[in-house]
Amino acid sequence: MATSQKLTDHFLSCTICTEVFDKPCTLVCNHTFCRKCIVNYTKTRPEAISAKSLLCPFCRKMTKVSAPERPVEEWADDVKPIFLIQGLLDSFGPGSKDTTNCTYCQEHGETTVAVAWCSVCDDALCEKCTGAHNRIPSFRHHDVTDLSGEVKVKGKRKAMCKEHKQESLEFLCQDCKKAVCQKCCILYHRKCDAVVTITSQMVTMKTELTEMKKSLSKKEGETKLRVKEQKLQEQRERDHYSLMKSHIHSACQKVIDRAKKKERKLLDRMEDISHKHIGQLKADIKTGEMSVLMYQHQTELIDQALQSECDMDVYEMYQGCEAGDVEAVRDADLKEGGRIASVTLRQDSDKLSKALDDLQLGEIEVLYESVLDLKATPVLQDTIDIRVADDRSKPIPSDVTVLVVNDIDTVVVTDFNNRSVKSFYTSNNQPGHSKLLLDRSPYGITKLTHDQVAVTVPATKQIVTVNVKPDLELLTTITTSKQYRGITSLTPSTLSAGSQPPPCVDILDMTGNVLRSIRTRHKGNNIFQYPNFLSTTRTGNILVSDWGTKCVVCLTPEGDVVFSYSPTGDTALSILRVSQVPTQATSWLQTSVYTESSI
User: Fold this and answer.
1) How confident is the model at residue 11 (pLDDT cuts 50, 70, 90)?
2) Residues near 48 by Cβ (< 8 Å), separated by ≥ 6?
């Protein structure tokens, strides 16, 4: 009995889906799986996809596929099962037995139509034999399938004990957290305090599973929102990088245009000088040629005088030459002024090379989230006076954050005294600012997205969201149950905010609903008194700057303390009096900021 079932359980079942092989394929390591199962597993392993191979979940060996250019879903189509597995499936697998007639009746020479199939006994049963089968106590919990009609309907599955093969698993040992049969309870769990029936725990288990399902569905939704926001951010960053490339090309083109302008100017100057110099040389050549003709003419005249038999002709020629007419003409011809002697081009290669080295097309600055380099030396880049023309009181910048909106660095400040949120930026080399008035004084601020911030308004128990363009625009007003001061964004759909009184750190959704509250003495620890400022670490934990205990506390979103650090000396946390608060855009309640990596 049950030979076929044992073969199916131990040799013909896929270890991934735990069902009988469906289109089995045997890998090079001789492990066999369903085609669909091994393909789905391979798709989750990037190293297998890169290697164009099927990956065995057991031994991690890779099986090269014959056509890696085909879709991954088709990679296992050409991988066949070994002969033994296929033979066992053909002999003992689904459909290998005759389910038309009752097996027991056939043994007695009768032919009766089968209406059920026992997968444990590996027999087909007629209606009468099915009733007899079910009345046998040891067969009562066998897996019986209804064969009436054309469709096989699976009966209620009973899990059987691996040690006591004929006993079903009906009990649950809550101490050992294990499902057991009646014999196991008697033999191995007599000393356990909580052994109950599985049926009695169904309501509790289903309730917990339902809650778990809700939690998973919620996390799924949050993750989808986060992925959607990340995709939007990816596109924004692509556009941002494209714009930066355009700016670099533009700056380079300006340099090239100026260099070409200097080149044209230098070439024009060279052409002017060369035209003048070549002209002078041509004039010299013409004058020389005329002088040669004149000298030839004078020579001919002297020859004629010498050949003349008239003494008077010789005398007149002699008298003319003695007066220096020829030399005078020669001196006049050779006398020139303002001549170009030579032209040279001086190029200072070192100076040109240095100028190119010093050429600044721009500078790439990278800002990393929640990363603090304690060894770096702070350098003051700029100071912003947050006082604007229509302020009625001396500004108190209670909190500050920085955004980059359309490639414009924008500083956003909460001004406690003037009941406003302010933004400061420089656009087209011109400084600009924006002011958003609120009903009451704002306090904490946090960045939600690349162009949105959330601001706490303790007096009215509100959190407002503001769009930064970089000019400010009020988006939504969230009503809360507490007066929150410090605030930080955990995920695109959750916030963390600090309250006093009562002193606590709450996890909120974007409607102001409290999802979790971390109290002063959470899990037996006195962790904070006045959580005024909050920030999120790169690992998703919450940093709390608490001026009551003068320490920095790092908490997980579940409320566990990662570390608590109390700086002393020059780095000690402090709170200033209002009269001492500067009007520059700097946070005035704390003097030190820490991350997990800095402790």
Assistant:
1) low
2) 42, 54, 55, 62
Q: What is the pLDDT of residue 87?
A: 67
Contact between 145 and 119 under an 8 Å Cβ cutoff? The reply is: yes
Phi and psi dihedrals of 253, rounded to 5? -65, -35
d(CA 461, CA 476): 14
- Judging by beta carbons within 10 Å of its beta carbon (0-12, 13-18, 19+), is residue 220 exposed, middle or buried? exposed
Tokens of 140: 């009562």
pLDDT tens profile 377-396: 677 877 889 999 889 999 99
Tokens at 544, concatenated: 């709390």
**423 within 8 A of 471, measured Cβ to Cβ:** yes
Count of residues making up the chain: 599
DSSP string, 516-528: EEEETEETTEE--
In one-letter notation, the amino acid at residue 452 is Q
The neighbouring-strand residues paired with 173 are 178, 195
Rounded to an integer, what distance in angstroms lies between the CA atom of residue 193 and that of residue 173? 8
Residue-range domain boundaries for the chain: 1-96, 231-334, 397-598
Per residue in 511-555, pLDDT (tens digit) is 999 998 988 765 566 777 888 899 998 778 899 988 888 888 888
**Cα–Cα distance measured from residue 523 to residue 187, given in angstroms and rounded to the nearest whole number:** 40
Enter the DSSP assignment of 76: T
Phi, psi of 179, deg, nearest 5: -80, 135
CATH of 1-96, one of 3.50.50.60, 3.90.960.10, 3.10.25.10, 3.30.40.10: 3.30.40.10
Q: DSSP string covering 98-131, please?
A: --SB-HHHHHTT---B--EEETTTTEEE-HHHHH
Give pairs for 183-186: CB < 8 Å, separation 24+. Answer: none
Task: Specify the DSSP class assigned to residue 153.
Answer: E
Q: How far is CA 126 from the centre of its chain?
A: 63
* Joined tokens for residue 554: 């790092």
Q: Which helix (H) or strand (E) element contains residue 465?
A: strand 462-468
Widest Cα–Cα separation across the chain: 176
- pLDDT of 475 above 90: yes
532 C-beta neighbours (distance < 10 Å), count: 23
DSSP code for 404: E
**502: CB partners within 8 A, 6+ apart:** 482, 519, 520
| CATH number assigned to the domain with residue range 397-598, chosen from the 4 options 2.120.10.30, 3.30.930.10, 3.30.390.10, 3.40.50.10260 | 2.120.10.30
Q: Which helix (H) or strand (E) holds 531?
A: strand 531-536
